[in-house]
Amino acid sequence: MKTIKRALRRHDRARLRKNRRHYWGGNANECAAKQGMVTETPHPCSCWLCGNQRKHFGATVQEQRAFQEKL
Ligand SMILES: [Zn+2]
């Protein structure tokens, strides 16, 4: 069972590495370290365009309504 888990992890890592080789503007193929980074972190940015809406803009309208109904 242990070897199956290891094989699955390796398979998934190889699959993601292959799929994500064009991420980050295709710069991930420059070196092995960047390939590893893009495999582990496909989207490293968390700016206000990409990040969590709640973090940057506060509660959603749905959450505001739910909170008001509780009061
Ligand atoms: Zn961003």
What is the H-and-E element order?
HHHH
Oligomer: single chain
Estimated structural class: mainly alpha
Radius of gyration: 19 Å
Q: Give the mean pLDDT.
A: 88
Number of strands: 0
How many separate domains make up the residues?
1
Low-confidence segments: none
> Which ligands accompany this protein?
zinc ion
How much of the sequence lies in strands comes to: under 5%
- Tell me, what's the shape? elongated
For the termini, the CA-CA separation is 53 Å
Summarize this, please?
The chain has 71 residues and is mostly helical. It has 4 helices and no strands. Helices cover 59% and strands 0% of the residues.
What does this structure look like?
The structure is a single chain. This protein is mostly helical. It has one domain. The protein is built from 4 helices and no strands. The termini are far apart. The model has no long low-confidence stretch (mean pLDDT 88). Zinc ion binds next to loops.
Describe the structure using short key phrases.
71 residues; mainly alpha; 0% strand; binds zinc ion
What topology emerges from the helices and strands here?
Layout: H1 2-19, H2 32-40, H3 53-57, H4 61-70
